[in-house]
Amino acid sequence: MEEKKLLGSGGYAFAKVTKQEEAKASLGVPQIFLSNIGRLNEDRFTKYYCNNCTKQYPGSPAIVYENPNEEVGQDMILVEKGEYRCRTCNDIIALYRKFNK
Ligand SMILES: [Zn+2]
Predict the structure, then answer these.
(1) 101 CA to centre of ligand 1 in angstroms
(2) How far is the centre of ligand 1, averaged over its atoms, from the C-alpha of 53 (Å)?
(3) What is the sign, positive or negative, of the torsion defined by CA atoms of 79, 89, 8, 5?
């Protein structure tokens, strides 16, 4: 695994990701988006930056998620929705949605 910068709407994080995760989340562009990566174990993160605090923190942002298993379209299930939040100001660093088709 390699340490990569993962971009979010409210900041960014550095985490160790596999080649497969990187390929899946970058969609052919050089940037990797946290919202495409989805949920990673907290121990994969080394640090994160919060735009609201304009500050970098060690470790992982707080990860809050739920599993609604809710049908959102034809044969499409919202399996998980989650948020990465700053541990200091609680602002959202990134949101993600996982669907099962
Ligand atoms: Zn913050």
Answers:
(1) 34
(2) 4
(3) negative
